[in-house]
Amino acid sequence: MSRPITEREQAEHRAQRHASRTGASYASFIRHLSEVGRLEPALAECAAVAVPCALARRIHPSEAKDLEARLPRKLVEFLPPPEQRAHRPRRFGREALLEAVAEGLSLPLERAEPVVRAVFHAMRDLISEGGADDVATHLPPDRQAL
Fold first, then answer.
1. Start-to-end C-alpha separation, the chain
2. pLDDT digits (tens, 9 = 90+) for 28-87
3. How many CB atoms lie within 10 A of CB 101?
4. Who's near 27: CB < 8 A, 6+ residues apart?
5. Which of 10, 13, 26, 131 would be 127's cystine partner, CB 3.0–4.6 Å?
6. Four-CA torsion 41, 46, 50, 56, nearest 10 degrees
């Protein structure tokens, strides 16, 4: 006969299951991003952080929080915590967004747009159409086109 499982063991088991699911959803997102963007996995992983970071600086904090709620937990762990972000969105244009991503990824500027488009595409596949539209409405038309 086996001994009863303690509360601590149950909690550890739940934590392991959660970590496993979290890692699996993150890995699935990175694979999807690699496929839709035809990106090397290492670049996809870096882009998956760089683009939402740049986007979070542009949209209202409440919209950034809503977006993060739809992203894989492990990805959100790599983003700066809300208290380290500006309370007001910074206004910047499409070129500044592309430059920030290019710089963050050490890419030539001309390679940034396809990477940004790939991340937006992969993120859009993760969230509802309404959620994607909510984020898009907080962006000027030149960034909505991405």
1. 61
2. 999 999 999 999 999 999 999 999 888 877 777 777 787 788 888 888 888 877 776 656
3. 24
4. none
5. 131
6. 80
CATH 1.10.490.110 applies to domain 7-144: yes
Task: Give the whole-angstrom CA distance, residue 70 versus residue 79.
Answer: 14
Residue 56: closest CA among 64, 66, 48: 64
pTM for this predicted structure = 0.73
By C-alpha distance, which of 57, 47, 43 is closest to 93? 57
Q: Which burial class, exposed, middle or buried, applies to 75 when counting CB atoms under 10 A from its CB (0-12, 13-18, 19+)?
A: buried
Cα separation values, 105 from 48, 64, 100, Å: 10, 21, 9
DSSP assigned state of 1: -
Predicted confidence (pLDDT) per residue in 87-128, tens digit: 666 677 888 889 999 999 999 999 999 999 999 999 888 776
What does the alpha-carbon distance between residue 131 and residue 128 come to, in Å, rounded to a whole number?
5
Residue 38 has a CB neighbour count (10 Å cut-off) of: 10
